[in-house]
Specification:
By secondary structure, the chain is an alpha+beta fold. It has nine helices and 14 strands. Strands 1, 4, 5, 6, 7, 8, 9 and 14 form an eight-stranded mixed beta sheet that branches. Strands 11-12-10-13 form a four-stranded antiparallel beta sheet. The chain starts with a strand and ends with a strand. Bound molecules: ligand DP6.
Length: about 300
């Protein structure tokens, strides 16, 4: 009645930004991501107590989203869920993807359920859409009920340098931001259509290991997602001054011959995609940007898995 699982957060190169079904958590368009090794969450689930309990990094949290996932899995016993993010503290990095992926794997194991990766991905999706991609890990594509791994983590020796731009919790959650964009942004439909074109193209470039073209596609996809969000009513501005400074710094690096391209989720942090050989140079350039608090360089990681308890 007890199990522990680990999962990694992921960064999307073709973004998920809009649901076609809010209750079922189905995306309007497909997305492509890669799991990141240093963004790891460990979650343990113990079933059979007298009440639900959810603790994240030592602090008690509301249990509603955890309970919804357990109910969807047919687990009706009370659960004690203890989760730890092994991220640098106070980075403000999102953890719902790794958190719900680890929860789905740990909860099903604690309940003695045997589920396929596909079923676990579909279950994690009900907690958070992007969590569907953290279950298979590696390079993952999510279009419908579940995500699938399209290439393993060791397929391509890339690095993802995360520049922490700004402190603590962000303003509007991804969930609220993507709903507001869908309901009020005049650019939303255009963004969704763009994603439908970008996904097959990105997969083709991934297959060809074409970093300049894939990096440029990821940068445009992210900036167009932010254009969609900026055009919402009221506007959604996720950037800090350091965010923009990082975009310019990466442009300068490329002009100097270093191949590195940015992507940005629904927050201020910039993730620079580059070859492993260029990672040290990219990291030190981003560290020199005013307002950047820390830079964390990650490699691709695998999927969610059980962590045998000693
Ligand atoms: C900008 O998966 O956090 O990171 O499904 O509502 O829980 P919910 O949202 P979430 O959204 C992630 C949005 C994004 C882009 C992406 O990861 O594809």
């Amino acid at each position: 009645m007890q199990a522990r699982a680990v999962a990694h957060a992921n960064i999307a190169l073709v973004k998920y930004w809009g649901k076609r079904d809010d209750a079922l958590m189905l995306p309007e368009a497909g997305s492509l991501s890669v799991a990141l090794d240093k963004l790891r969450t460990v979650t343990s689930v113990e079933l059979g107590g007298s009440e639900d309990l959810f603790e994240l990094d030592g602090a008690s949290q509301p249990t509603a989203r955890v309970r919804a996932l357990l109910d969807a899995a047919g687990i009706h016993q009370k659960a004690r869920v203890i989760s730890h993010n092994e991220f640098p503290t106070a980075s403000g990095l999102a953890s719902s993807a790794s958190g719900f992926a680890a929860l789905a794997v740990a909860a099903c194991a604690a309940a003695g359920q045997e589920r396929t990766l596909e079923q676990l991905s579909a279950l994690a999706r009900l907690g958070s859409g992007s969590a569907a991609r953290s279950v298979p890990g590696g390079w993952a594509v999510w279009e419908n009920e579940s995500a699938r791994q399209v290439f393993p983590p060791d397929y391509w020796d890339l690095r993802f340098a995360i520049a922490i731009c700004g402190a603590g919790a962000k303003g509007t959650s991804s969930r609220d931001g993507m709903r507001a964009s869908r309901e009020t942004s005049p650019y939303h439909e255009a963004f969704i259509e763009q994603c439908r074109r970008d996904l097959p193209q990105a997969l083709h470039l991934l297959e060809a290991r074409d970093l300049p073209a894939l990096g440029a596609l990821a940068e445009k996809n992210a900036l167009r997602m932010h254009a969609d969000a900026l055009a919402a009513d009221p506007p959604l501005l996720y950037w800090q001054p350091a965010t923009l400074a990082c975009l310019h710094a990466l442009g300068d690096l490329r002009a100097a011959g270093v191949q590195a391209w940015p992507t940005i989720d629904a927050g201020p942090h910039v993730v620079a995609i580059c070859a492993a050989d260029d990672a040290a140079r990219v990291e030190s350039r981003l560290r020199a940007v005013e307002g950047v608090r820390e830079v964390l360089t990650c490699a691709p990681a695998g999927g969610a898995r059980l962590d045998r308890m000693s």
